[in-house]
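#struct-queue
[09:14] JT: dropping the first one here, sequence first, then the structure tokens:
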Amino acid sequence: MSASKTMKKIGSLLCAGLVMLLPATVFADYKLNMTPSVTAVGQDIYNLHMIILWIVTIVGILVFGVIIYSLINHRKSKGVTPATFHESATVEFVWTVIPFIILVIIAVPATKTLLAIEDTSKSDITIKATGWQWKWEYEYLDSGVRFFSNLDKASNEARQVKSGKDPRKVENYLLDVDNPIVVPVNKKVRILTTSNDVIHAWWVPELAVKRDAIPGFINESWFKAEKTGTYRGQCAELCGKDHGFMPIVVNVVSDSEYSDWLAKQKKAAADADAGAGKTWSKADLMARGKEVYEKNCQACHMANGEGGGPFPALKGSKVATTGPVAAHIDLVLKGKGMMPPFGTQLNAVDTAAVVTFERNAFGNNTGDVVQPSQVSK
């Protein structure tokens, strides 16, 4: 057997062995191409990708084919004499015109697709998406609905150090939220992206949308989902410690479901305003405060309130949780150092609840009960 045939056989055996070692799940999750899109623009992007892929593939085969043919059939050992000409007007013309034609073929659909991507006019719904460390704030500018979207509770618990929970058993681990965006199917949705602190990026592959969220700037993008369903994305800019924990979830629903969802959101906002004027029991404040703490504070101060790294402990803290109540409220509202101000993120009820919780959890037991009326923004 020749050396080349031996090497080919060894290579085949090695490849076969590696394939047998790989688990079946690798092939189940492996994708050979771009993520399928449910928008017309996304399909245009895919088509453009395929056109360019085939062009560069054919060009690569032809160029390397000529090189390999020349290396085999025009080598010195075969007695081939090199050509003596230096310039050829014909060759110069051919390798100038052909690339020009190829670029024109690519430029026409590319220009059309780029113009479509940037055309945010005639939108049916406008949503402002503001990136925070590490969550998203959404404001429906046409209807006045506003809410924050955090990493879901199951993922947030499983990601904690020594949580004892297996992330592999959490459905959609790190890709689910407590409050997803809801939009109607076949409606043009305009997304305004900005940031309150550092650079983030709003990215949902199946909707063919990716835009940077930059402090002090507003970027525009849009999508029109042609199919109902749930579409997941992530922040695509390295924005800090919890960059990997601020997913994006978009629920595309029917028109009637969207109307029902809007009505519920408006009712929830009205209930929150009404709740700010009543007196709450300590038990209710503790229960609600625990939820607020898990969504907003636990990532830095830990589930047991002992903090970690640059983040101080809340357990037994004379500066925050066991000191004067007014100073504690002020710290939550205005922030300090690496702690962001929560005055624009939490309403009066949630602020009172989380302060009450922190002052009576982790062994603090101050007995203080903070009412929404004590919260002055």
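[09:21] JT: and here's the second one, same format:
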Amino acid sequence: MIFINLGKMRKKPEKEAVGDATKMMEEFKKRGINVLTWYWTLGRYDTVFIFEAANEKEALKVSVDVSEWVATETLVAIPRQEAINLL
């Protein structure tokens, strides 16, 4: 399953926190989380994190793991063709 995690930073990012986030991504990989892309953005959200996880429970763990640094909203992404097939 593909998830889109929209994040709002809780505090100003520092270089140390960026290093911690890089280490966290390695831990996610060990748990079977496939990071597809990660952006810092301008506008309503500060980050957009797109990843694959086995299920919603694993995606929830990602949000809990980053909750110290980022307030998140996570969306389930359904590929366009699959959604069309549901019509």
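[09:30] RK: nice, looked through the second one.
[09:31] RK: The beta strands are 2-9, 34-40, 47-52, 70-77.
[09:31] JT: good to know. The longest strand covers residues 2-9.
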